Amino acid sequence: MNKKYLFSIFAIFIVMIAGGWFYQKYNQFIPTANAAIHVKNLSQQDITLIRQNTPITEVKVYKSARIVQLMHHDQKIQSYPMRLGFTPQGYKVQEGDGKTPEGQYILDWRNPNSAFYKSLHVSYPNQQDLAQAKRLGVSAGGDIMIHGSATTSQIEKMPSLMNYLPRNDWTWGCIAVRNVDMDEIWKLVDDGTMIRIYP
After folding, report:
1. 3-state secondary structure string, 32-69?
2. pLDDT over 80 at 86, yes or no
3. 38 is catalytic
4. Which sequence ranges form a coiled-coil region, renumbered to this chain (predicted)?
5. How far is residue 115 from each of residues 85, 119, 143, 148, 179, measured CA to CA in Å?
6. Could you give the residue ranges of the DSSP H alpha helices within 71-139?
7. DSSP letter assigned to residue 124
8. Which position has the higher pLDDT, 64 or 93?
9. Rounded to whole angstroms, what are the CA distances from 71 to 33, 34, 91, 194?
10. How far apart are CA 125 and CA 82, in angstroms?
């Protein structure tokens, strides 16, 4: 075998190894296909009418379906696809477990300068969460948010990332939506709104 042939085989092998490593490390950030996202985003007039006539009274999060729903009492107003913590199944038990909490909380404050665009804070941990963590001798954690999927600096460089939603779960326990959807949630959901997170 000549040296060029051996070098080519070696180069192909190295590229395959590197490609496999990059895929394993970053595959959760591959974008979801646009055809898989079924959201008819609202105009500013739509948002104004919703706030006047059917204001959002509750946010429902269905972890298994990867859906966030904005509700006016029993009426569904809008739904968004979302992604969860990197180990999504089950109750959040402690800081760093990669789980998104389950239960009833309040969206109690907001951050317009969030690391991930904008965010609404979920009032986790509640007293039950704190008691469970204490029994286990661990920290319950905190800083659970609904937030965007691309940072403000990324958006400044590539505005098309407003529609970016990773294919897989990737957060540390937060609920991540597309930035364009976060804009709607931000305008429609007031501080003090209840959020129920279901398995």
Report:
1. CCHHHCCCCCCCHHHHHHHHHHCCCCEEEEECCCCEEE
2. yes
3. no
4. none
5. 16, 9, 12, 9, 12
6. 127-136
7. -
8. 64
9. 26, 25, 23, 10
10. 21
Q: 121 an active-site residue?
A: no
Q: What is the pLDDT of residue 140?
A: 93
Q: Which residue has the higher pLDDT, 118 or 24?
A: 118
pLDDT at 6 over 70: no
Q: What is the mean pLDDT of the chain?
A: 89
Q: Where are the domains of the chain?
A: 1-29, 33-195
Confidence of residue 143 (pLDDT cuts 50, 70, 90): very high
Predicted model pTM: 0.84
Specify the fold of 33-195.
L,D-transpeptidase catalytic domain-like (2.40.440)
Q: In 3-state terms, what secondary structure has residue 110?
A: strand
- In the chain, the percentage of residues whose pLDDT exceeds 90 is 75
Spatial neighbors of 89 by CB under 8 A, at least 6 apart, are 63, 99, 199
Do 151 and 117 form a contact (C-beta atoms < 8 A)?
yes
Q: Which pair of tokens denotes residue 89?
A: 């199944």
pLDDT mean over 48-71: 98
How far are the Cα atoms of 150, 152, 153, 166 from residue 157, in angstroms, in the given order?
11, 9, 7, 18
Q: Give the angle 186-125-81 at the CA atoms, nearest 5°.
A: 40
Neighbouring CB atoms inside 10 A of 95's CB total 15
Instruction: Tokens 């897989």: give the residue.
Output: 168
